[in-house]
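[job 0417] fold request received: Carbohydrate kinase family protein
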Amino acid sequence: MGAAAEPLNGSELLVLGELCVDLIIPVDDEIRFGQHEQLVPATTLTMGSSSAITACGAAALGTGTRLISVRGDDTFGRFLDAELRRLGVGTALIRVDATLPTGASTHLTRPDGDRAILTSLGSIGTVSADDAPDAVLRTARHLHVGSYFLQTALQPDARALFARARALGLSTSLDGNFDPSQDWDSGVLDALAEVDVLFGNDAELCGIARDDDAASAVRLLLDRMPEGAIVVRKLGPAGAQAWERIGSGLRVLSCGIPAVPGALIDTVGAGDTLAAGFVSARLRGEPTGRSLAIAVSCGSASTRGPGGVGAQPGWDTARSLAATLTVAQNGD
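[job 0417] inference complete; emitting C-alpha cells
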C-alpha cells in the first residue's frame, strides 16, 4: 500500500484510535419511515472518528502528528488515507485489513446542533497495543487515545500501553467519548492511573465515574490519575473547564466560547478538535489556562464548517481567538 512507503520518522504526537468516514446529513424534521422520501439540503462525505479528527486538528495547528489505526482496503479506506495525507497527518502506522470494511458513521444533524449518529463498526475497534510498540512510542512526545469505549481490542492492554509510553518519557491523554453500550467498562478507571489528561463531557465523565454529579465525578476521576493530572470538562456552548490538582488542593479554570465569524454549520467533531487544541498547546509549553483558551477556540472555530475537519483552525487563528477570552479561576 502507498502508506507503507512513508518513512517512519518522528513526530510530536501519536494518536491511537479508530478510523471511519462521516456522512453528514442535515435534517429539519423528524425522520419518517414508511418509505417516505425526504429531501435534505446536502450530504457531505468527510473525515470521521474522534481519533482521526483530533489528529487532523493537531496537524492543522502545526503539530507533527501520526495516526495509529486500522482501515479496510476499500473506497472509504482509500478516501481516508488520501484525506489524512492532504491534511498533514502521517499514515505510515495505519494498518490495512482487507478482511474488514472501513467503519462509517452517518450523522443526522439538526439546526440547533443536536445530532443522531448511526455507526457501522467494520474496522473500528481493531487497533491494539501491539500497533504501538516501544520503537514507535520512542519517536514521539505525547500519546493520545480517542474513543476508548470503541477500542475493544485495545481495552485489555490500555493501562499497560499508557504505562509504557510514560516510562519512555511521553505524556498521555485519553478521550473516552460516549459508550454506545452505556456499560462504561470499568477498565478505563484502571487505565487512568497512567493518563495525564482526560477529556469528557458531563455525560461521559459521569458514566466513567458512575456518579450522577459531574463535579463529584471529576474529583473521583482525578483521584485515580497521576499527580498533576488534568480533567478537561467539555461544556458544549458554555465552553470548557480544566480541573487540576495543585499540591493537596484543586484548581478549576473555566473558559467560555469566543465570538467566531460565520454561522454555526454543525458541531460534529468540535470536542475532538478541542482536545487537539489542548494537547497541541501543552506540547508548545503553554500553561493550563492558555491551553484551555486555545482548546475552546479550536472547538468553536470547527463548528463553522461541515463535518469534523472542514473548519479546523491553524495556530494563528486559534491564538487570536484565544486572546479574546478570559479564563476564570473558580474555587471548588
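[job 0417] notes: Residues 252 and 332 are 7 Å apart (CA to CA). The chain has ten helices and 15 strands.
[job 0417] exit 0
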